[in-house]
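Appendix C: a fully annotated inverse folding record. The material below is reproduced so that readers can follow the format used throughout the book. The structure is listed first as tokens, followed by the designed sequence.
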């Protein structure tokens, strides 16, 4: 699994989380509860009942955009990926979770492509960089609390 390596904007953020991998995973995959720890990307609601799996669909609102994402891959306690097209931007988002001594390394990567991205690559890069850093930091803080 990977993001679109040919996209003009690719961002990555990672954190060491002093919590078990199951705790970080639970926060990440509990989409309906995202508003308890990162309200800026809500409302977030899973449309597909049951556990997160390929084909699961969820709606959310990052940076004021209304996005419908479709999960493309899930490996329990290891990784998720989804496609998130919105407003001419093709987003591909990947999360990985690695159990290590004393906690978990959580990494997220995302790529953006499409005409709206190409109009302002530096601005979009800065926005995506900041967004992913914030998301990982909040996951870290919440998992460790």
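Designed amino acids, in order:
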């Amino acid at each position: 699994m990977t993001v679109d390596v040919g996209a003009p904007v690719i961002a990555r953020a990672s954190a060491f989380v002093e919590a078990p991998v199951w705790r970080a995973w639970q926060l990440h995959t509990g989409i309906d509860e995202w508003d308890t720890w990162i309200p800026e990307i809500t409302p977030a609601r899973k449309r597909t009942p049951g556990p997160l799996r390929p084909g699961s669909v969820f709606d959310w609102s990052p940076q004021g955009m209304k996005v419908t994402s479709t999960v493309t891959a899930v490996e329990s306690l290891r990784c998720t990926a989804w496609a998130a097209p919105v407003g001419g931007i093709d987003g591909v988002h990947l999360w990985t979770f690695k159990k290590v001594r004393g906690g978990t390394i959580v990494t997220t990567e995302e790529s953006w492509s499409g005409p709206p991205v190409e109009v302002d690559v530096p601005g979009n890069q800065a926005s995506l960089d900041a967004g992913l850093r914030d998301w990982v930091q909040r996951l870290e803080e919440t998992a460790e609390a």
